[in-house]
Inverse folding.
């Protein structure tokens, strides 16, 4: 990660205090937080539940006002509309219209970004194939499992080819194959110069893809830096070699024991992690078996890799901020008058001398007969 790269997010003294009905402080969710995120960086937001991660994300998106502090996203306020068009967001819970199918869902979000029909259709096909839902495009998303909803949610977050991608628990509910594909996607986005903020409780996922991380607790920054800086143990050295003959191994150990106590020396066989073993088993099974679930093994969408033509990579921001040409009247002929409502036209055409018919006065009600009957009933009771 290049330290001289463009600063995409700048946070200084960020504080968010939630208050009760009477305006009294109830919870200090974020407390004097400072960090920067640069272009092409994968930045991890870590911390236990209630540490302020989700609140920080909402502040970055402009969904919440900070109590104190300063936030800049692409050099502007998070509430700047054109800036929001450069952001893709996958929330922790997938909020989708349950009666739309996969294609209709992506088409809806594509229209929100004013994507042209041809470009929108092209991206939808690439995204459905990338997230493994091409074969389920006609199923309503309300019928999807949680993992499949995360897949379509990830696709909608990328429909606008964003420059900043904020992912909140992106691998929640996904199988190990889906997790691996999401991590590959994150790395591909970073390689293309996109900025990714990843909030996750799965520390192995963060370790695989993040350049830097910040660890929050109680709303405060407890640790921040590159993974190498935070995880390395400078007082311990690991030596890995091929299998040695017994006599050579003993000679090596003899040299080491001359300077190090025997109980501090550890010898074992390296192992691969469970994810690598799992993926290898599934890859072999895929060659001989079929599945009716979500498929995998798909490449990152071409337009996200930057393989498409220039029109496919055009940013939404450029279209939103393009100057509007002034409207000019035609050279010949008068400017057509706007159509007028027929009812208003009739009212205006009515002669002024013609008075409106006056309403008939209400007739007085005769209550004498009712009073006589009431008087007679009263005398009878007495």
């Amino acid at each position: 990660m290049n330290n001289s790269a463009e600063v995409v997010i700048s946070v200084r003294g960020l504080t968010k205090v939630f208050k009760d009905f009477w305006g009294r402080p109830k919870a200090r969710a974020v407390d004097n937080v400072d960090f920067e995120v640069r272009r092409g960086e994968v930045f991890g937001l870590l911390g236990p539940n209630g540490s302020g991660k989700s609140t920080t994300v909402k502040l970055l998106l402009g969904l919440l006002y900070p109590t104190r502090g300063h936030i800049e996203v692409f050099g502007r306020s998070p509430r700047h509309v054109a800036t929001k068009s450069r952001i893709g967001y996958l929330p922790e819970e997938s909020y989708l219209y349950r009666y739309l199918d996969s294609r209709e869902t992506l088409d809806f979000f594509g229209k929100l970004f004013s994507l042209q029909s041809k470009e929108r259709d092209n991206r939808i096909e690439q995204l459905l194939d990338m997230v493994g839902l091409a074969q389920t495009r006609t199923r309503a998303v309300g019928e999807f499992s949680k993992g499949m909803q995360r897949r379509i949610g990830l696709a909608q977050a990328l429909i606008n080819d964003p420059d900043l991608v904020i992912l909140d628990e992106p691998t929640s509910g996904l199988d190990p194959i889906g997790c691996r594909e999401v991590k590959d996607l994150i790395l591909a986005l970073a390689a293309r110069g996109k900025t990714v903020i990843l909030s996750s409780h799965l520390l192995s996922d963060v370790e695989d893809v993040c350049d830097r991380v910040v660890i929050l607790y109680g709303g405060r920054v407890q640790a921040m830096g590159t993974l190498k800086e935070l995880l390395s143990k400078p007082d311990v050295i690991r030596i890995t070699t091929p299998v040695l003959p017994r006599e050579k191994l003993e000679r090596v150990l003899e040299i080491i024991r001359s300077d190090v106590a025997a109980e501090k020396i550890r010898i074992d066989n390296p192992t691969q992690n469970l994810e690598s073993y799992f993926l290898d088993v599934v890859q072999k099974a895929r060659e001989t078996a079929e599945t009716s679930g979500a498929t995998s093994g798909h490449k990152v969408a071409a337009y996200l890799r930057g393989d498409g033509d220039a029109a496919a990579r055009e940013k939404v921001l450029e279209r939103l901020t393009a100057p509007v040409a002034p409207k000019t009247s035609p050279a010949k002929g008068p400017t057509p008058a706007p159509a007028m409502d027929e009812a208003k036209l009739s009212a205006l055409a009515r002669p002024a001398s013609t008075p409106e018919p006056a309403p008939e006065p209400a007739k007085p009600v005769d209550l004498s007969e009712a009073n006589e009957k009431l008087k007679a009933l009263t005398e009878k009771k007495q």
